[in-house]
Amino acid sequence: MKVFVVGVGMTNFEKPGRRDDFDYPDMALEATNAALTDANLAYTDVERAFVGYCYGESCCGQKSLYQLGMTGIPIVNVNNNCATGSSALYLGHEMLAGNRSDCVLALGFEKMQRGSLGALWQDRANPIENHMAVMVEKYGYESGPPTAQLFGNAGREHMSKYGTKPEHFAKIAEKNHCHSVNNPRSQFKDLYSLQQVQHSKYIHDPLTKLQCCPTSDGAAAAVLVSERFLALRPHLKRSAVELMGISLTTDLASTFEGSAMRLVGYDMTRLAAQQVYSQANITPDQLDVIELHDCFSANELITYEALGLCPEGGSGAFIDRGDNTYGGKYVINPSGGLISKGHPLGATGIAQCVELCLQLRGLAGKRQVANARIGLQHNLGLGGACVVAAYKKPNSVEFDRKSSLPKLLGGNPTAVKASDFKCAAVFDAIAEQITDPKNADVVKKTNASYKFKVTGKAGQGVWLVNAKVGSSPFVRFMDDGKADCVLTAKDDDLFDIMSGKLDSMKAFLGGKLKLSGNPTLATKLNQFQGKVKEALKNQKKSNALDADSEKDFSSKSQNSSSFASDKIFDDIKQKLTLDPGLAKKVGAAFRFVIRDSVSQTGKSWFVNTKSNPPLVSSDDDYSKADCTIEVTDDDFVKIIEGKLNPQTAFFNKQLKVTGNVMLATKLTQFQQKNVSKL
Hints:
Layout: E1 3-10, H1 24-39, E2 48-52, H2 60-65, E3 75-78, H3 84-97, E4 103-110, H4 129-139, H5 146-162, H6 166-180, H7 194-199, E5 202-204, E6 207-208, E7 218-226, H8 227-231, E8 241-249, H9 260-263, H10 266-280, E9 289-291, H11 297-306, H12 315-320, E10 331-332, H13 337-341, H14 345-360, E11 374-381, E12 385-392, H15 424-434, H16 440-446, E13 448-456, E14 459-467, E15 474-477, E16 485-490, H17 491-498, H18 504-509, E17 513-517, H19 526-546, H20 556-559, H21 566-578, H22 580-586, E18 589-595, E19 602-608, E20 615-617, E21 627-632, H23 633-641, H24 646-651, E22 655-659, H25 667-674
Parallel strand pairs: 2-3, 2-4, 9-10, 9-11, 13-16, 18-21
Antiparallel strand pairs: 1-7, 1-8, 4-7, 5-6, 8-12, 11-12, 13-14, 14-15, 16-17, 18-19, 19-20, 21-22
Helix pairs in contact: 3-14, 5-11, 6-11, 10-11, 15-19, 21-22
């Protein structure tokens, strides 16, 4: 089963502690929302999640994703040192390729401390103590950070064995810093000359400070789907990057045979690369763009050879020819790599995936690699783990039309009709509004696209609403195209939200409305509500005229009934108009449902003292009220005349109040203003 990456997202990579609003749940939410928006999917589409991080308490993955929805899916926390993010990708791929899932989220984040890495636990065995023992036996232990010594010694071995010069390592760092200038997500965007790199502070010969990656805060996410999932959503294919092959390897016996290069993963890398080339049926010569693990410039240099990009010992000449940058044979680390983009451990492997997907989709901006068709990822963790993966650009993806792909649960998404949904009238009203040139100001204020995923009795329906400036506005049913904001709700709940009966924030907090993408855009939906209310009101009137015998509180036939309270509402309207102070004292919106105690016919009044001017209407069933009061016509007259205490009526169940019950006490404001006239 083929596997595809259909959505990617990441945060800026930051110096640890630079941002106060950047705890791991914040960065995880930002990256995941970006990936889901890119994929045109909601969190409810995700069936499993693999979350990578190295520093933090257990179950940080759950803490991060619960804010998107508590859907009960398996969430697996992953830790594989610096290869943590790509290990999450690997696990997601295995679930999809093994036909165990159809949509998987891979998320990685890290909130780090400033300064070089060190051991946090002194009361237990260190996972790389065997590596350190081999290094110390051959090279001794110097004053620099342990990881810098491990990788620096690998560089020394390459120099001794193949005649590589310190200048070659410096050239790699110069290149990566240059690449990062065009990456808005990069931690560093400064351009350094070769001399500046060479003359920066020595960390461990031959490595200087500008040849070492920093610690970083940040997150990255990717949405992976199966071929079956993609086949049912053809619109996603244009951006679906095929994950052609992926391999995760660990240390071999040769790691500890005395070679400094093997000690830091040379053989792990070579084995993983060979496995991926075989899976993808490609050779290194077919690669165009590569993101590899340059935690130190020495590791990038030895990895060229381990990946088969040049012969063993040929990295010096490879660098001198410029075959590792734009204009050469490959473009390696166009993102700036770990050295300049940054290295939040859990996020790095997925950030590499993000960069390659953007490159293969032609969305990398100024750092775009021309005609990039196949990309390779390499992510390494001491201790040890190595992940290598190959990716293919979307327009080169070939789907096997002859294969029998089983249908997803739910069957064909086009089986339902718009008319099967109560909220179809809502979208008809929105369509009428945004396609009318007279309402150009509404489109201008909204300037966004929305996808509504609506679950009704007939199944799931999807509406795409495009209200963006510079494009033709439209509303389409069963168009699962890309949108800035995705809203998921039940049919009845969405109808109530858009008609003003249900507050959208309460619906969100109560789990009735789920958001992905840019959730702040959901606040702009009130631009449509006025038109929706008007359309629903007209529809209700029309239905009432077509069914004279039907009892409906808002129908014309019922509203034409004579109630003693009609005069009271007329008087309230007059008093609110003449006395602005009265509206200010009341400061609320009421709905009064008045019943005739004999005929049981009903009439609805809406009194809004918050609007300017105040509103009193018997023809508004959809505006939101702070308090709804149900009472018989006779009892309401008695309350306003002062003959019946509202509190007594409430306790005797003559007065029913919903919403903000305390607002019912403000009825005395109307009573005082009207008693002399009644």
